[in-house]
Amino acid sequence: MNMYLELILPGLVIPFGLSVFLFSMTRRHPVLQWGLPLIWLPSYIWMIGWPVPPQEANEWLWLLVVLSTGINFGLKQRPQQAALAQISLLGLALIAITWPVLIHQPGLVLALELLAVLCAAVIFFFNASFSLAATPSLALAISSAGLALVTALGGSVLVGQLAGALASILGAYALYEVYRRFAEQSTGVIQLAPVVQVYFALLLIARVYAEIPLFSALMLLIAPLIGLMRGGRYAALGSAVMVAIAFTWLLTTADSSSYY
C-alpha cells in the first residue's frame, strides 16, 4: 500500500489538487495563471529530492521551469524577446541534460535528436496561430499523460511519474475546456510555455536515458504541436492519436532492458 501511495500521491493526487486550487484562485486573480508551471515543483521535489546542485539529467528540470516561468512573466509584453529567451534557455537545458552523453558518446543521432527538439520549440514559440488554440491545456495534458505512460512502460518509472505530474497540474484546466465543450481556453497558450519546455526536456531524457523507441519519441514530439493547432476545437484529439500511435509502437517494438 505504501508503495502505491508513493507513486500516486506525488504523481497524481498532489499536482491535481494544486491544479484545482490554482484554477479556483485564478477565476478571481487571473495573474496567478502565470504561476501554473510552478505547482509542478512540489511533486518534482517529492520524487527527486532537493536537487542542488544539479548532477543528473532530471535534476536540471527545476531550474528550467523556474527560469522559464520568470522569462514568461518578465517579458510578457515583449513576445519576440521572450520567444528567443525561451529557445535559448531550452537549448542550454538540453545540453546540460545530455552533457554526459555528449562528452562520452557523441554521435550524429544524438545531434539530430537535439536539433529535432529545438526545431519543435522554434515552431511552438514563433507560430502565432498556436495562441488561438481552443484547448491548449487539454492537448498538453494528453501529450504529457502519453509521455508518462510510454516512458514508464518503456524504461523509466521515475521519468514517467514526472511526466504524469506534469499532466496532472493541467487537470483542472483541461477539464474546464472539456466542460466548455472544447470551445473556450482555460488558460493562455503563452502561459503554458514553461510546461512545454519541461515536456520537451522530459521527452529528451526519456529518449536518451530510458531509450524509448525513436518513432514513439517522434510521435510524442509532434503530439502537443498538433493539439495546439489554430482554431481546431478538436485538435486535442490529434494529440490523442499521436499518443496512441506512440504507445502502440512501444508495445510492438520495445524491450524492458533500459531503466533510468
Structure report:
The protein has 260 residues and is mainly alpha-helical. It has one domain. It has eleven helices and no strands. α4 runs antiparallel to α5, α4 packs parallel to α9 and α6 runs parallel beside α11. The longest helix is centred in the middle third of the chain and has 26 residues. It starts with a helix and ends in a 7-residue tail after the last helix. The model has no long low-confidence stretch (mean pLDDT 89).
Separate helix tally: 11
**Apparent shape:** globular
Unreliable runs? none
Structural class: mainly alpha
Task: List the main descriptive attributes of the protein structure presented here.
mainly alpha; 70% helix; globular
Write the layout of secondary structure elements.
Elements: H1 2-26, H2 41-48, H3 61-74, H4 79-104, H5 108-126, H6 136-154, H7 157-168, H8 171-179, H9 193-208, H10 214-227, H11 235-253
Helix pairs in contact: 1-2, 1-7, 3-4, 3-9, 4-5, 4-9, 5-9, 6-7, 6-8, 6-9, 6-10, 6-11, 7-9, 9-10, 10-11
